[in-house]
From TrEMBL:
The lineage of its organism: Bacteria, Bacillati, Actinomycetota, Actinomycetes, Micromonosporales. This is S9 family peptidase. InterPro entries: AB_hydrolase_fold, Pept_S9A_N, Peptidase_S9_cat, Peptidase_S9A, Serine_Peptidase_S9A. Residues 481-696 form the Peptidase S9 prolyl oligopeptidase catalytic domain. It comes from the Bacteria. It comes from Micromonospora vulcania.
Length: 698
């Protein structure tokens, strides 16, 4: 310890619970009382303690922040996207936290997106929303909906000023600039316009903060007059709403973790009753896209890695195969355009895109040159188009926007995110960095992929420090991504690695299934296997290895801290799900019931209860030597409550005293942390400075 100041003392107030004959005492349950002044005082004291313990890193934090800022073009403009008679884009301005949403009319014979010098406003620009003006007077700001009506007249948008993801929905007249009296509080993500823009559909949540209702709002009327179009009473299911790209149908998506149902309303008849595409069947997932006379159905009915079929749009019934199931090729989405379909897929751990011409022509895959990369469709609102916009990046290639001609197969780079010269004044050169795919061997013989990036010439003798990132839940894939802030670590000799553990989706649905429910521990043992492989292969050493993860990846961090504390020099757990058993046992908490198909239901199943209790981090803190731990959370997080890491850190100090455990709570933010870009850069600089300190490179 570099200071003799003691950490805040968390009082112990035992709270008893009994399940399946097992009685547990939770001494720190009182920390869940968010409105209790004692809780706020404790969190404030923890922040002060963390500030003091990291005060010696202040200069390094400033350097890291300035390096990110110096490398970023602060005044910039996104590649405009065409929708109807306008180009839509976002501008950022140096010194301003938030983006400015704009549009400009399409001019005669204009086919390529307009550009501007150094991010300056386009000639003839209309400012639709300025996030900086909306955020004035607030510590937090997030834009939920941003949905322009089909005729281009109305803008539906929603705002959140606390971080709890509960938005106030408003409608703006883009012809006059007036804000209508329409105002709907406590909405969720997702909106959809009717064809004539007279009706707006939106979503609200129940008392457990589960999106459960789709509403119909008539523009110009009071929210009190809105009508519930669908209410989902099964607590396992969420609802969402969207307008198809063809603008012909409103889709109401109803889904649990393993089951789907889709309702459809003609966008030209918004008061019509929703019709079911296919009734829900337990374990069958499907998604719908409209294409001409048919609905495209991406589904897993007898197809573990999903297949593509279609059914009649006039009378939905049998599903006619279009792409048969191919084990090992996971179909993830289908996007329909008038004359082409584009299927997003992954195979061998990499993302890809397959084009299916409509009518004539053979299907083909779009090729990309790098051994590791991430590619997907970007915004493509136009249905009748001969080209699509792609977003591409890798661990060494900055985010790149391409327009791809679906007929000629020509790809045009519209913009690559600028990376300005760093502290040494030299421009960014991807050739100075190298990326690798390595494989670790898990305890059961499973090969687990690892993605790595480092500077060329980084030694492989175990002397290099390494940050190992992981997630491994919900079939989410940690595909290679570029980070400006990461360059500051790489340039200081750090290796950055990603462990693609089971529970994620990198290697298909089976990879996910092998890391959930009663197989969840595979996620943790895979990560430890990756850590040990990196040491064995000479990438790093255990006293120079820091693990990092967020949300469900924070659960991973807490689990591996208990499983193999000796394998790491430090652990960063952001908004970590470390009190999983307590949360999943309480159906009154936000999202708990919907999570039972991911983790199991410990309330009803004693086997699930015993299994979860054996791995949940808070329950398994032991009197051992833990690595240094930094837990970062947010007071208004509704997905993973701040009390989970607060309780975890308190128990670590009580059971394993002498360790270096820090808790940092954002007092005015949600699950995603600070909302402004400069605030987010400062948070990343804080974490990276702490990581470098673990490596002795502060």
């Amino acid at each position: 310890m570099t200071t003799e100041t003691a950490p805040p003392a968390a009082k112990r107030v035992p709270a008893e619970r009994t399940h399946h004959g097992d009685t547990v005492l939770d001494e720190y349950a009182w920390l869940a009382a968010k409105d209790d002044p004692e809780t706020i005082a404790y969190l404030t004291a923890e922040n002060a303690y963390t500030d003091e313990r990291t005060a010696h890193l202040a200069q390094l934090r400033t350097e890291l922040f300035e390096e990110t800022r110096r490398r970023t073009r602060e005044t910039d403009l996104s590649v405009p996207t065409r929708k109807g008679g306008h180009w839509y884009y976002t501008r950022t301005v140096e010194g301003q936290q938030y983006g400015v949403q704009c549009r400009r009319a399409v001019r005669d014979a204009e086919t390529d997106p307009p550009v501007s010098a150094d991010g300056a406003p386009l000639d003839g620009e209309e400012v639709l929303l300025d996030g900086n003006l909306l955020a004035e007077g607030h510590d937090f700001f997030s834009l939920g909906a941003f949905d322009v009506s089909p005729d281009g007249r109305w803008l539906a948008y929603s705002t959140d000023f606390s971080g709890d993801e509960r938005f106030t929905l408003r409608v703006k007249d883009l012809t006059t600039g007036e804000l209508l009296a329409d105002e709907v509080p406590d909405t969720f993500y997702g909106t959809a316009w009717s064809t004539d823009a007279s009706v707006l559909f939106y979503v609200t949540v129940d008392d457990a903060w589960r999106p459960n209702r789709v509403w119909r709002h008539t523009v110009g009327s009071a929210a009190a007059d809105d009508v519930v179009v669908h209410q989902e009473d099964d607590e396992r299911f969420w609802v969402g709403v969207e307008l198809t790209r063809s603008e012909k149908f409103i889709l109401i998506d109803i889904h649990s973790k393993v089951t789907s149902e889709v309702l459809v309303i003609p966008a030209g008849n918004p008061t019509g009753a929703p019709a079911v595409i296919a009734p829900r069947r337990q374990g069958v997932e499907y998604a719908v896209e409209h294409h001409g006379h048919r609905f495209l159905i991406l589904h897993n009915d007898g197809a573990e890695d999903f297949a593509l079929a279609f059914t009649s749009a006039d009378a939905p019934g049998d599903w006619v195969p279009l792409i048969e199931h191919s084990p090992g090729t996971r179909l993830e989405a289908v996007d329909a355009f008038a004359n082409h379909l584009v299927v997003s897929l992954r195979t061998d751990g990499l993302t890809g895109l397959r084009v299916l011409p409509v009518g004539s022509g053979d299907a083909y895959d779009i090729d990309f040159p790098e051994p590791l990369y991430s590619v997907g469709l970007d915004a493509n609102p136009e249905y009748r188009t001969g080209q699509v916009r792609l977003r591409y990046s890798s661990l060494v290639t900055p985010d790149s926007i391409y327009d791809f001609d679906l007929v000629t197969r020509q790809m045009v780079l519209r913009k690559q995110k600028p990376v300005l010269p760093g502290p040494d004044g030299r421009p960014y050169d991807p050739a100075e960095y190298e990326q690798h795919r390595d494989w670790a061997l898990a305890d059961d013989g499973t090969r687990v992929p690892i993605s790595l990036v480092c500077r060329v010439g980084t030694p492989r003798d175990g002397s290099a420090p390494c940050e190992l990132y992981g997630y491994g839940s919900y079939e989410a894939s940690m595909d290679p991504w570029f980070s400006v802030a990461r360059l500051s670590l790489l340039d200081r000799g750090v290796v950055f690695a990603v462990a693609h553990t089971r529970g994620g989706g990198e290697l298909g649905r089976r990879w996910y299934d092998q890391g959930k429910l009663l197989a969840k521990k595979n996620t943790f043992t895979d990560f430890v296997a990756c850590a040990r492989h990196l040491v064995k292969a000479g990438w790093t050493a255990s006293d120079r290895l820091v693990a990092r993860g967020a949300s469900a990846g924070g659960l991973l961090m807490g689990a591996v801290a208990n499983l193999a504390p000796e394998a790491f020099a430090g652990i960063v757990a952001q908004v970590p799900f470390v009190d999983a058993l307590t949360s999943i046992l309480d159906p009154s908490l936000p999202l708990t019931v919907t999570e039972w198909e991911e983790w199991g239901n410990p309330l009803e199943d004693p086997e699930v209860y015993a299994y979860m209790k054996s791995y949940t981090p808070y329950e398994n803190v032991a009197p051992v030597n833990y690595p240094a731990i930094l837990a970062v959370t947010s007071l208004n997080d509704t997905r993973v409550l701040y009390s989970e890491p607060a309780k975890w850190i308190a128990r670590l100090r009580a059971v394993a005293p002498g360790g270096d455990y820090l808790l940092k709570t954002e007092m005015g933010a949600g699950h995603g942390g600070p909302s402004g870009r400069y605030d987010a850069w400062r948070e990343e600089a804080f974490i990276n400075a702490w990581i470098l300190d673990r490596f002795g490179r502060a």
